[in-house]
Design a protein that fits this description.
- Pfam families: Cys_Met_Meta_PP.
- The protein contains 15 helices and twelve strands.
- The chain has a seven-stranded mixed sheet with strand order 1-7-6-5-4-2-3, with helices on both faces.
- The chain is an alpha/beta fold.
- It has two domains: about 240 residues, Type I PLP-dependent aspartate aminotransferase-like (Major domain) (Aspartate Aminotransferase, domain 2, 3-Layer(aba) Sandwich), CATH 3.40.640.10; about 130 residues, Alpha-Beta Complex (Aspartate Aminotransferase, domain 1).
- The structure holds pyridoxal-5'-phosphate.
């Protein structure tokens, strides 16, 4: 099946029908334990924490799509990420993207630190900075590209090469791109991670995480950790993710085309100070992104003046849901300073460009012209700056 395009493989895998009944949907195997035929031959499955047929279908599917050999399904993206970090030991050091997902930032800082696993945050777009951050005890370089929410692009191939030369693993959080647009294992990464809650499942109805690798040693150790922590995805949720995957390609194609249109329109508006979108030829990472990915994706960010402008805009906008999360059929507008990056101290946020005026948009399947019209009416509701400043200054004086 691997000679077909990914678009076709999403629908025609080894799991396209159930060999026992012909059912054109993976059966949900709602069992915690499995009868063992005899003492010496326990069978493939014994207990669902260690293995479950529905989960196996999803795990094989993500492994195939990422061009890996083994996949793992976890209870959430954070469960996949934090379990993978347990491949490290006390005394090890991690080099990590400075604009990493807020939950990963929190886990690295507040949890791993307590277990004696040290880290250095770097600007991953700067290869020299990455090289000089690697220490004798560095075991892992951790990448997110495009990054969240400022959409900086890291050269996966170059960083993986640098990591390998220093005997370090490279892990890539591929949530924003999915294997439909970017396959880090083909570029030299050792492990790819996903919040399947986002584009992979795609319907804002399940929380899930995935991992895939092509290295037997890494797979064996991760399988041991998954079973040890029990951070597994349940059978029903595995089935929801498998169903979502079938439409991944067409959802991303439509949403990405709309995101390109919307990003372009937003740059024309005087109240928008900056638009972040890796599809712009002016984006500093554009050529690397075009080399390593098959599209710019469906996420963009834009900067308004300040928190007041964000409040007025988000109160007026009608179509997108105003929510945490991304990668769904409906467009989602989020405010990183108060949502995904609320756990990051303000000065850390601002260092990373996550100012109080920054909004992130995950484009869904609405007609793009309707979204553009909605944004334009909402932008009209933003009050002129001088009026607000004067009022605030007067208030402070009284
Ligand atoms: C949402 C997200 C996560 C965390 O995934 P959960 O499923 O919410 O645990 C990790 N990385 C990125 C880039 C995300 O967007």
């Amino acid at each position: 099946m691997t000679d077909h395009s990914l678009q076709t493989r999403l629908l025609h895998s080894d799991y396209k029908f159930d060999p026992h009944t012909g059912a054109v949907s993976v059966p949900i195997q709602q069992a915690s334990t499995f009868h063992q035929q005899d003492f010496d031959n326990p069978g493939t499955y014994d207990y669902s924490r260690s293995g479950n047929p529905t989960r196996k279908a999803l795990e094989d599917t993500i492994a195939g799509l990422e061009n890996g050999t083994e996949g793992f399904a976890f209870a959430s993206g954070m469960a996949a990420i934090s379990t993978s970090f347990m491949l490290l030991s006390q005394g090890d050091h991690v080099v990590i993207s400075e604009d990493v997902y807020g939950g990963t930032f929190r886990m690295i800082n507040d949890v791993l630190q307590r277990f004696g696993i040290d880290h250095t945050f770097v600007d991953m777009t700067d290869l020299h900075a990455v090289a000089t951050s690697i220490q004798p005890n560095t075991k892992l370089v951790y990448i997110e590209t495009p990054s969240n929410p400022t959409l900086k692009i890291t050269d996966i191939r170059a960083v993986s090469k640098l990591a390998k030369a220093n005997d370090c693993w490279t892990f890539v959080d591929n949530t924003f791109m999915t294997p439909a647009l970017q396959r880090p294992l083909e570029l030299g990464a050792d492990l790819v991670l996903h919040s399947a809650t986002k584009f992979i499942a795609g319907h804002s109805d399940v929380v899930a995480g995935l991992a895939a690798t092509h290295q037997p040693d890494l797979a064996e150790r991760l399988s041991f950790l998954q079973n040890s922590f029990g951070s597994i995805l349940g059978a029903h949720d595995c089935w929801l993710v498998l169903r979502g995957l079938k439409t991944l390609h067409c959802r991303l194609a439509q949403s990405s085309a709309s995101a390109a249109k919307i990003a372009e329109e937003l740059t024309k508006h005087p109240l928008i100070e900056e638009v972040f979108y890796p599809g712009f030829s002016s984006h500093p990472g554009n050529s690397i992104h075009s080399y390593q990915s098959e599209g710019a994706g469906a996420i963009l960010s834009f900067r308004l003046r300040d928190e007041d402008a964000v409040r007025q805009f988000t109160n007026a906008v009608e179509l997108p849901v105003y929510a945490v999360s991304l990668g769904a059929v409906e467009s989602i507008l989020s405010y990183p300073a108060r949502m995904s990056h609320a756990s990051m101290p303000k000065e850390e946020r601002e260092k990373r460009g996550i100012t109080d005026g920054l909004l992130r948009l995950s484009v869904g399947l609405e007609k793009p012209e309707d979204l553009i019209e909605d944004f334009q009416q909402a932008l009209k509701q933003i009050q002129p700056y001088s009026f607000l400043t004067n009022r605030r200054v007067n208030h402070e004086l009284t």
